[in-house]
């Protein structure tokens, strides 16, 4: 008797021993640190069934993984469902607590490294890396079962106990470095707002030649005025919730930032080489991410009333009289904390409030609550 689980990747066959059925995975065998490991392809529909997650009923010292962050799952699941033709997931890493046998195809060369990995079905599969991908796959399958026959790479190690599994988790994550947000924006071709930010950086006279495209922080001597990530978040806040076409949003964003440029003479001074970018960043806050984000939110509130330039440009005229210097005591506790520019959500909100009051735009009930807390010294 033979029950096929996948015509291409995985099948369940009749047992060879009395212990029960077993999984047979086409696999490639490798060696790391003197230990054998195996790489195979597993159909997505089998992932939730055979790969368990060490849930948080146990205390941290008795687990081999961190607690599953369920807040990440909707985004990961949506990524799969929204991009069925080009989503990409890296391999899962799992430890197998059970007898593992590898039947190689031959005795030399590639044939010795390829074959079938046989694992009893009563074995325990513990994910060392990829528990959020596994959970997202499970959720996505419920909404789109058709992806069940697609596959994901799995790296199998033999389970050598809790200490070894914990060490594997630590080693797999020890050197993981999240890429800078700027380069993520630079390479993201799905996000329409990332496309607008890239277009602004390359075409808008305000930003062209003065945007750091890879790093999300600027060194003290950098000749750049902005980071791509700061421009992205500022433009995202500007366009958020506006129901307009992509081409229109790009044009609107360019018009907005070019008008903002007319109210901030230091930006043009840098472009004319009358002021260096390091000097501007040292003495002013208007090229920092918090300022772009706040200005974007101001523009968004104006656009929600009217996108007619004659109306929103007139409202922005008082920006010319804002004192953007770091020495302005009004920024302390709003945009500057302990002498450093802060990009926290609270500081962005307080900076927006300051600009809205200066422009006489009024505050919403929530904005007034935040402002009152700041004035009482509670923020």
Automatic annotation (TrEMBL):
Extent of the signal sequence: none
Record-given protein name: Putative DNA sulfur modification protein DndB
UniProt cross-references to NCBIfam families, sorted A to Z: DGQHR, DNA_S_dndB
CDD domains: dndB
């Amino acid at each position: 008797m033979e029950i096929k689980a996948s015509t291409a990747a995985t099948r369940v066959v009749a047992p060879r021993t009395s212990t029960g059925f077993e999984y047979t995975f086409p696999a490639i065998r490798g060696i790391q640190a003197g230990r054998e490991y195996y790489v195979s392809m597993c159909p997505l529909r089998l992932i939730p069934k055979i790969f368990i997650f060490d849930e948080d009923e146990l205390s941290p010292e008795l687990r081999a993984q961190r607690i599953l962050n369920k807040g990440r799952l909707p985004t990961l699941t949506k990524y799969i469902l929204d991009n069925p033709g080009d989503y990409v997931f890296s391999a899962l890493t799992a430890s197998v607590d059970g007898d593992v046998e590898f039947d190689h195809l031959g005795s030399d060369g590639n044939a010795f490294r390829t074959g079938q990995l046989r694992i009893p079905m009563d074995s325990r599969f513990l994910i060392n890396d990829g528990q959020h991908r596994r959970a997202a796959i499970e959720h996505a399958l419920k909404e789109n079962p058709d992806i069940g026959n697609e596959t994901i790479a799995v790296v199998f190690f033999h389970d050598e106990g809790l200490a070894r599994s914990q060490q594997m988790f630590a080693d797999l994550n020890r050197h993981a470095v999240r890429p800078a947000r700027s380069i993520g924006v630079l390479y993201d071709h799905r996000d329409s707002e990332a496309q607008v930010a890239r277009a602004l950086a390359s075409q808008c006279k305000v930003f062209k030649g003065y945007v750091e495209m890879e790093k999300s922080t600027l060194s003290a001597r950098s000749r750049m005025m902005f980071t791509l990530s700061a421009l992205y978040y500022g433009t995202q806040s500007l366009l958020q919730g506006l129901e307009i076409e992509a081409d229109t949003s790009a044009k609107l964003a360019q018009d907005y930032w070019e008008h903002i440029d007319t109210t901030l003479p230091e930006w043009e001074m840098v472009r004319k080489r009358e002021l260096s970018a390091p000097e501007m960043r040292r003495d002013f806050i208007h090229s920092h991410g918090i300022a772009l984000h706040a200005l974007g939110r101001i523009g968004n509130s104006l656009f929600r009333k009217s996108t007619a330039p004659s109306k929103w440009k007139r409202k922005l005229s008082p920006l010319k009289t804002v004192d953007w210097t770091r020495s302005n005591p009004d920024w302390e506790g709003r945009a500057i904390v302990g002498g450093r520019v802060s990009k926290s959500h609270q500081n962005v909100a307080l900076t927006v409030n300051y600009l809205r009051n200066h422009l006489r735009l009024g505050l919403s009930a929530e904005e007034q609550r935040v402002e009152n807390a700041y004035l009482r010294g509670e923020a």
